[in-house]
C-alpha cells in the first residue's frame, strides 16, 4: 500500500499560516518581555543598522494616532477586528493556495498586534531599523514579528498578482 499526499486546501494552508504567524509573534514577545527582559537590557546592537529595543506603540504604523483616549483605543481595536474579519472572509473564499497563505500571514500578524493592544494597551515592537541615509520612512522604523508577517503576506499577494496573469471573465451565469 502506498501513501498518497494531497496538498492542503487553500483554507487549511491559510489557517496554518495564520497560526504560525500568531504563534511566532506571541512567543517572541513573551520571550523578549519575560525571559530576555529587553526593558532592562536595551538597546542591543545587532548590526550597524538594526538594534533590538522595546518600543510601545499606542497608535498604528509610525505611531499615528498614538495620543489616544480609551474610547479611541477601543475604536482602533474594533476597526482592526473588522479588517481581520474581512481578511478571513477573503481567505475563506481564496481559490489559490498562495493567496490563502499570504492572507493567513496578514491575519496572523494582525491578530498578534490586536492581542497586544487588548493585553497591554499598546503594541510591543522590538526591531529598530535605522540608517544615516535619508531613505524615507525606513530611515527609522521599529517593528515586530507580527509586522514582518503582515509584510510577508502583502509581498506574497503582490507577487501572485504580478505572476497570475489575466483572469478569465465570469460567465453570464456567474455574474
UniProtKB/TrEMBL annotation:
Q: Which reaction does it catalyse?
A: Release of signal peptides from bacterial membrane prolipoproteins. Hydrolyzes -Xaa-Yaa-Zaa-|-(S,diacylglyceryl)Cys-, in which Xaa is hydrophobic (preferably Leu), and Yaa (Ala or Ser) and Zaa (Gly or Ala) have small, neutral side chains
- This protein's pathway: Protein modification; lipoprotein biosynthesis (signal peptide cleavage)
- What UniProt keywords are attached to this protein's entry? Aspartyl protease, Cell membrane, Hydrolase, Membrane, Protease, Transmembrane, Transmembrane helix
The annotated active site, in chain numbering, is 125, 147
Q: Which GO terms describe its cellular component?
A: plasma membrane
- Entry's Gene Ontology molecular function annotations: aspartic-type endopeptidase activity
Q: Please tell me whether the keyword Magnesium is annotated for this protein.
A: no
Any Pfam family matching the protein: Peptidase_A8
Note the topology in the membrane. Multi-pass membrane protein
Q: What sections of the protein cross the membrane?
A: 74-92, 99-118, 138-159
Keyword Cell wall biogenesis/degradation (UniProt): no
What role does this protein play?
This protein specifically catalyzes the removal of signal peptides from prolipoproteins.
Q: Which family does it belong to?
A: Belongs to the peptidase A8 family.
Q: What is this protein called?
A: Lipoprotein signal peptidase
Source organism of the structure: Methylosinus trichosporium (strain ATCC 35070 / NCIMB 11131 / UNIQEM 75 / OB3b)
Amino acid at each position: 500500500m502506498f501513501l498518497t499526499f494531497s496538498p492542503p486546501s487553500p483554507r487549511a494552508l491559510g489557517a496554518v499560516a495564520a497560526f504560525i504567524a500568531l504563534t511566532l509573534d506571541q512567543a517572541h514577545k513573551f520571550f523578549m518581555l519575560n525571559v530576555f527582559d529587553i526593558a532592562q537590557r536595551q538597546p542591543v546592537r545587532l548590526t550597524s543598522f538594526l538594534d533590538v529595543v522595546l518600543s510601545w506603540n499606542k497608535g498604528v504604523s509610525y505611531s499615528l494616532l498614538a495620543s489616544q483616549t480609551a474610547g479611541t483605543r477601543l475604536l482602533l481595536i474594533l476597526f482592526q477586528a473588522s479588517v481581520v474579519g474581512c481578511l478571513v472572509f477573503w481567505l475563506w473564499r481564496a481559490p489559490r493556495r498562495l493567496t490563502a497563505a499570504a492572507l493567513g500571514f496578514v491575519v496572523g500578524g494582525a491578530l498578534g498586534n490586536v492581542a497586544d493592544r487588548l493585553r497591554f494597551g499598546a503594541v510591543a515592537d522590538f526591531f529598530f531599523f535605522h540608517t544615516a541615509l535619508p531613505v524615507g520612512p525606513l530611515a527609522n522604523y521599529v517593528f515586530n514579528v507580527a509586522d514582518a508577517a503582515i509584510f510577508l503576506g502583502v509581498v506574497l499577494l503582490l507577487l501572485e498578482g504580478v505572476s497570475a496573469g489575466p483572469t478569465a471573465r465570469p460567465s453570464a451565469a456567474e455574474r
